[in-house]
Amino acid sequence: xxxxxxxxxxxxxxxxxxxxxxxxxxxxxxxxxxxxxxxxxxxxxxxxxxxxxxxxxxxxxxxxxxxxxxxxxxxxxxxxxxxxxxxxxxxxxxxxxxxxxxxxxxxxxxxxxxxxxxxxxxxxxx
Length: 126
Fold this sequence. Notes:
By secondary structure, the protein is α/β, with parallel strands linked by helices. 40% of the residues lie in helices and 18% in strands. A 4-stranded parallel beta sheet has the order 3-1-4-5, with helices on both faces. A two-stranded antiparallel ribbon has the order 2-6. Helix 1 packs across helix 5.
């Protein structure tokens, strides 16, 4: 069991594969994919989010992803491929690990929102 942030990050990165923006676009194009922005609301308001992404701040992820939670977001479906991202890839790695622990099988870390933007990825302004 991890006892510090470094160990948590190592475990998360080992469990959740990193994908490039091009790989993420391919997954999204295939359908049945949920893209989740785990940044804070102010970050999303400043920059927008990946087009079609659901915004769930890192602190609320467990409540939105758990079907037994009163705060469950119906967009979360264990049959979907899930792509998570944040500002640099750290929060999304941890988020992806939580989703894996919750039984989501196909979870990927897109990493940094900036990489998506720099690659020409579509953005929804909020």
